[in-house]
Amino acid sequence: MNGRVVRGALLVAGTTSDAGKSVLVAGICRWLHRRGVDVAPFKAQNMSNNSVVCLDGGEIGRAQALQAAACGLAPSVRFNPVLLKPGSDRTSQVVVRGVVDGTVSAASYRERKAALHEVVVETLVELRRDHDVVICEGAGSPAEINLRATDIANMGLARAADLPVIVVGDIDRGGVLAHLFGTLAVLEPADQALVAGWVVNKFRGDPALLAPGLDQLRALTSRPTLGVLPWSPELWLDAEDSLGHVADGVVGRPAPPRGREWLRVAVVRLPRVSNGTDVDALSAEPGVAVRWVTDPSRLADADVVVLPGSKATVADLAWLRAQGLADAVLAHARAGRPVLGVCGGYQMLSRRIHDPHGVEAAPGTVEGLGLLDVEVTFDVAKHLGTPTGTALGEPVAFYEIHHGRELRDGVGRPGPAPLVTLADGAAEGVDAGAVLGTHAHGLLENDTFRRRLLTRAAAAAGRDFTPAPDTSYAAVRGAQLDLLGDLVERHLDTAALEQLITDGAPAGLPAIRTTTGQARATS
């Protein structure tokens, strides 16, 4: 860093959701961390059902956990003080500093914003006190002016903490220049004064063709483009809430198999899927082809079927039946082919699901798929933990986030064989041979366990498949983070980034306004 001490903060905003904010923050964090800077990530408010449990006991968005890894830090609730976990189209569970704090609708959440704004600002102050640099990620887009009055994650945070802002746009979607210009144009002048530059994401093609547009954008806004990040097909890990999880699609880009055949994994894309990134570790294995599916026909030729987590298990189980997927899962299991249920997916595989307190919907009991000899009861209190133990004879570490409690002896006979034996000797999950279930998230990230599981699954499926003996999921993730750091270092104006972090937004950046269709800068 040219001998200069780097201290300060920066907010990365986006023209839209999924514009690239999360990966850009991770890349900037990795770039700084590799240069010895004490850097931490921060997202004031996240809306995601992909979360992890921190060592300090609470849960945060998985994207912030990945960004923490980019910084060389363990996840902390301070990196994501407000997490919204949607349970339906209209309501979300609110997690504040890692702890559940009620359920809100879109309207009622607005009423809580003032108190949460204080939590957010105080948490950012703590982080800036304890770390030299904090790289903040916005939420959605700052151009959502209908939400500006109660905003705590974009310009509301930038104004409160005097943060310089860069805005990233996804050129792969088209219209990126209009998106960048329009984002600035709809902001009030005091907000505009903090927007200091642009980043174009996912560019592929001839840079010379884009350059005139960037020149015009600077002329119209008086703000430079700090870099153009190229499309990188090698990036795929931890794509939180990405469009790749919305419809059928392949996860990752695995290397060819070590044996003669691929092992094909079908992951059911539930409407309210939670922690779907659990299967990323399978995609890191050579010869394992992982695909998200929503059609029963896609299970017909799968070797392994995975039912992932769900934020609304009962509703997603009803959807599974309505789509014909439940019958396809049952046929797959009865043919002796492997089925793995994780968290909500595990609960669906049980005999019955009891919700006496109406945790998910109206109180009552529903029949599960009956493939595992357990019953599940939802408690009001959410269970969070980071336990260790053994599974398939291998040491494992993982995390748990669930309301459901498994009832292993509810029918007056010995409970089923556990999949995991915890360090205290307690049983967790079920190993019923071809069908397995567990509440453990991150279990597949344990390398030796994953290889043992894949070996067993390949044998049951009759596949000539041998897991690679040396695949390290941690190393794969580290390589992805290094790739992000490389992209930032090679394609962004890092000197300008450093100056923004240290000195803030330049004074005198003009506001822009539109008059009869013509844009102009105004002082």
TrEMBL record:
**From which domain of life does this come?**
Bacteria
Hey, which pathway is this one from? Answer: Cofactor biosynthesis; adenosylcobalamin biosynthesis
Q: Name one Pfam family in it.
A: GATase_3
SUPFAM superfamilies found in the cross-reference section: Class I glutamine amidotransferase-like, P-loop containing nucleoside triphosphate hydrolases
Can you tell me which residues form the catalytic site?
C343 (nucleophile), H441
* Keyword rRNA processing appears in the UniProt entry: no
Q: Which residues cross the membrane?
A: none
Q: Which GO terms describe its biological process?
A: cobalamin biosynthetic process
Q: Does the keyword Nucleus apply?
A: no
InterPro entries (alphabetical): Class_I_gatase-like (IPR029062), CobQ/CobB/MinD/ParA_Nub-bd_dom (IPR002586), CobQ_GATase1 (IPR033949), CobQ_N (IPR047045), CobQ_synth (IPR004459), GATase_3 (IPR011698), P-loop_NTPase (IPR027417)
Report keywords, A-Z: Cobalamin biosynthesis, Glutamine amidotransferase
| A GO term, aspect molecular function | ABC-type vitamin B12 transporter activity
Q: Which residues form the CobB/CobQ-like glutamine amidotransferase domain?
A: 264-448
Chain ranges of the CobQ/CobB/MinD/ParA nucleotide binding domain: 11-236
Give the matching HAMAP family: CobQ
**Family the entry assigns:** Belongs to the CobB/CobQ family. CobQ subfamily.
Q: Cross-referenced PANTHER family, in alphabetical order?
A: COBYRIC ACID SYNTHASE, DETHIOBIOTIN SYNTHETASE
Q: What does this protein do?
A: Catalyzes amidations at positions B, D, E, and G on adenosylcobyrinic A,C-diamide. NH(2) groups are provided by glutamine, and one molecule of ATP is hydrogenolyzed for each amidation.
The protein, known as: Cobyric acid synthase
Q: Which organism is it from?
A: Actinomycetospora cinnamomea
Gene symbol of the encoding locus: cobQ
